Amino acid sequence: MTQNTDPASNLAAVRADIAKAATAAGRDPAAVHLVAVSKFHDADTVRAVLNAGHRLFGENRVQEAEEKWPALRADFPDVAVHLIGPLQSNKVKNAVATFDVIETVDRPKIARALAKEFDRAGRRLPCYVQVNTGEEPQKAGVAPGDVDAFVAECRDNLGLDIQGLMCIPPVDEEAALHFALLSEIADRNGLAVKSMGMSADYEKAISLGATHVRVGTAIFGVRPQTA
Ligand SMILES: *Cc1c(COP(=O)(O)O)cnc(C)c1O
User: Does the model's pTM come out above 0.70?
Assistant: First the structure.
């Protein structure tokens, strides 16, 4: 992980690492998308990365994104912002208005609320299903054994545009096992998108098929506050 405090040069270093990891795995570097996780960082810090040409971002709180992104979008209309944090029912409407992709569809209630809001708003966002690969009781996500049925329910009965899966492996376990599991579940459900890998392990995730890596600290430095 880089120690540099300049987000633009950190971004260049992360991009180079991604290209190297993809090439080493025999993959096209263009098939790996970097989601720059800007949570807790202010608009000026984010702007440095936008000015460096980056356009794909992740935020984990609906309210923070609602406050930060409208002004940035006005200057950079081609940005895409992914919701990568937990979604509560009472925030679904705001989330659909604020984000471009919902990465954290994690339970039937939220899937139904999203389907309803997409109909109401006439705006249908691509969605990923969050998988609790470590089956951790305190962590959000669908248990690995329930994903096939949940994806079918979302796609066939609710009409959601489920494009892929995302996971956050347990901190104290070998991440590679979780990345391999997510990849296998995505493949058997015909899902192309695999959102996995963060600052500490994105290269490993790429070697196991990640199409989207979510990288915060390695680009923006240590977050000013934690959740
Ligand atoms: C904060 C966060 C990240 C980025 O983590 P870093 O270790 O700072 O790269 C990735 N994914 C999710 C879901 C997050 O909440």
Answer: yes
